[in-house]
Design goal:
The protein is an alpha/beta fold and 317 residues long. It folds into 2 domains: 221 residues, P-loop containing nucleotide triphosphate hydrolases (Rossmann fold), CATH 3.40.50.300; 70 residues, Alpha-Beta Plaits. It contains 12 helices and 14 strands. The strands form 3 sheets. Strands 6-7-8-3-9-10 form a 6-stranded mixed β-sheet, with helices on both faces. Helix 3 packs across helix 4, helix 3 runs parallel beside helix 5 and helix 4 crosses helix 5. The longest helix has 16 residues. The chain is elongated. Bound molecules: adenosine-5'-triphosphate and magnesium ion (MG). The site of magnesium ion has 4 residues, from helix 1. The site of adenosine-5'-triphosphate has 13 residues, from strand 2 and helix 1.
Length: 317
């Protein structure tokens, strides 16, 4: 059994009447990259900020390497680093000064701070921006400064809150590879994201959170295997399908789940290639015009849909 880095038990966080997180139980293991996947407002940042001792739990507790965020906040803060979703400059408002200050706070000497800050800034393409004012930086550049803090600090537990949401594709790949390097060098990583591609590329395990509750947990391939059947049939149709026809398709496909939205029928089945022929036969008999057909392996997007009944792109803001 792996050692637990973060133990979350019965964690509830309310803001007034808003229940941001509603009874979360979760272990993040030492040495893993854990992806926290969920749409806007699902409670990711609230959870990460509570792990980082910025918020206090309303109920329940979180332990980081055995230290409670409510009772041993100082010990927790020594082990963690967090790159916030919304970076803000402190009173130091030039990226170079900010990062040198950060490097010294986390224990580097002045000489080492200058060296490590320069290395990381050059790698992330930040060196040319080192003396600009924080307010003059683009959103993506600000985000890179925020992420640079963790690449400098290399904390035991590194928490990234939507690290690549504003970054261009090349920089995304660079950041992913640096996060993996950090992990290989000994940091446990938690990454919050609403991007299934990012979650899949990066994470050893993924937790799907929706409306403050954990809906599913496992490695990306384990999550895909949790969808019964393992194949997805998608049929785009034109016009109306009667309830009777839908029931016939459901029976013929032996599917546990059939969804129809925006003119697309979606069925989770075994042996998709064979079943799709049956579905087409029924639709033809019912005079429903078929526009396109696809049989697919589930993606994490599908897994998300299966467990929540919601589409990530619909609930994304
Ligand atoms: N400081 C706060 N005061 C009041 N409500 C808050 C506060 N922070 C978060 N919330 C609410 O708690 C819920 C969860 O928000 P949270 O920021 O944790 O979601 P998230 O999963 O990080 O979303 P996103 O993908 O948009 O970053 C939302 O309904 C949000 O409006
Ligand atoms: Mg957030």
């Amino acid at each position: 059994m792996s050692r637990v880095a973060v133990r979350i038990r019965d964690f509830v966080k309310k803001f007034g009447n808003v229940v941001a997180v509603n009874g979360l139980n979760l272990d993040v293991f030492d040495g893993e990259i854990f992806g926290f996947l969920g749409p806007n407002g699902s409670g990711k940042s609230t959870t990460l900020l509570t792990i980082a001792t910025v918020y206090k739990p309303t109920r329940g507790d979180i332990e980081v390497y055995g230290f409670s965020v409510t009772r041993n906040g100082d010990a927790v803060r020594k082990l963690i680093g967090i790159a916030f979703q919304e970076p803000k400059a402190l009173w130091v408002d030039k990226p170079y000064e900010l990062l040198v200050w950060h490097a010294m706070v986390v224990g580097y000497s002045l000489i080492d701070s200058r060296r490590v800050v320069r290395d990381v800034m050059e790698e992330l393409g930040l060196w040319e921006h080192r003396n600009k004012l924080f307010s003059e930086l683009s959103g993506g550049t600000r985000k890179k400064v925020e992420i640079a803090k963790l690449f400098i600090q290399k904390p035991k537990l590194a928490i990234f809150d939507e690290p690549t949401a504003q970054l261009d594709v090349t920089t995304k790949h660079l950041v992913w590879s640096k996060i993996r390097d950090m992990n290989r060098e000994g940091s446990t990583i938690i990454v919050a994201t609403n991007d299934t591609f990012e979650a899949e590329r990066l994470s050893d395990r993924v937790g799907i959170i929706y409306r403050g509750t954990l809906k599913a947990l496992g490695s990306p391939s384990e999550l895909k295997d949790m969808i019964p059947g393992g194949d997805i049939i998608e049929i785009r149709v034109e016009g109306f399908i009667s309830g009777n026809a839908l029931r016939k398709i459901e029976d013929a496909l032996e599917t546990k789940r059939l969804d129809l939205s925006n003119g697309t029928l979606k069925a989770y089945v075994n042996r998709g290639e064979e079943k799709v022929a049956l579905a087409l036969e029924i639709l033809m008999r019912e005079n429903v015009k078929v526009r396109s057909v696809a049989v697919k392996e589930p993606s994490l997007d599908e897994v998300f849909f299966y467990f929540t009944g919601a589409k990530l792109e619909e609930v994304r803001g």
